[in-house]
Amino acid sequence: MLPSGRENPLLVVDIGNTTVTCAVFQQDAVIDMFGFSTDILAEPDRLPEAFHPLAGAGPAVRDAVLCSVVPAVSESVRDYLARSLGGEVLLVSSGMKLPFSLHYESPSSFGVDRIALCAAGRKLFPRQALIALDVGTAITIDVLGAEGVYLGGFIMPGLDLMAGALHERTAQLPLVSIHQPAELLGRSTVTCIRNGIFWGCIAQLDGLFVRISRELQEQGEGEPAMMVTGGNATAVAGLLAARPQLVEHAVAKGACYLYELNASRQ
């Protein structure tokens, strides 16, 4: 849980490449949640339709925080929510007050979803090195030291991106939906693609966790905590040898925490 000191509800809007997840937080609890396709945000006249569920979200929501990896729609959504809610609307960015030290060559290029995930991880594991895994459209791994210093990470294609690339860049391979196969080995083109992508991803993550953990311990950071979130997190979490803690909606929770650190009205 990520405790909050605020009494009033807060809307967290997590704008991903494919979907938008909206969560209304009251203290540390999610009291309402809804979502829709990111494509809707490209049509400003559809914003009232997209955010209509807020009308039934219980106590009036006035404040919001946006965590958007789609810059083209960020400002229009922030402006709409500022007008319709009438409160303070913040955008997650590297320029915010952060609960960790972001050592990155170009901080402004560090994904805001990764910023929020690191914030959530720092709140959950404040005195421990951390490996934070997000399994979504892209797969990201971010690593924090025990003192809260960002040490580095990885960005890799997600399961569906890998399937799409095989289909688009070859003449004959079909587009295959990816889910956990019943067996290790495929016996058709479809199952060979599915099994190769899925089990290859598991093996890749297992190998990286081992290497990262070894490097952290060699640097005196101790045994790291491990957490996983994202749209495909439930599909992979229980199969990873490291058994990372599954944290649902970790990006939204981290964005909520960042709002608390940066809001002008405390």
UniProtKB/TrEMBL annotation:
It comes from Chlorobium limicola. The gene is coaX. PANTHER family: TYPE III PANTOTHENATE KINASE (PTHR34265:SF1). Pathway: Cofactor biosynthesis; coenzyme A biosynthesis; CoA from (R)-pantothenate: step 1/5. Its cofactor is NH4(+); K(+). Substrate binds at residues 104, 111-114, 189. Catalyzes the phosphorylation of pantothenate (Pan), the first step in CoA biosynthesis. This is Type III pantothenate kinase. The keyword Kinase applies. NCBIfam families: baf, PRK13320.1-1. Homodimer. Belongs to the type III pantothenate kinase family.
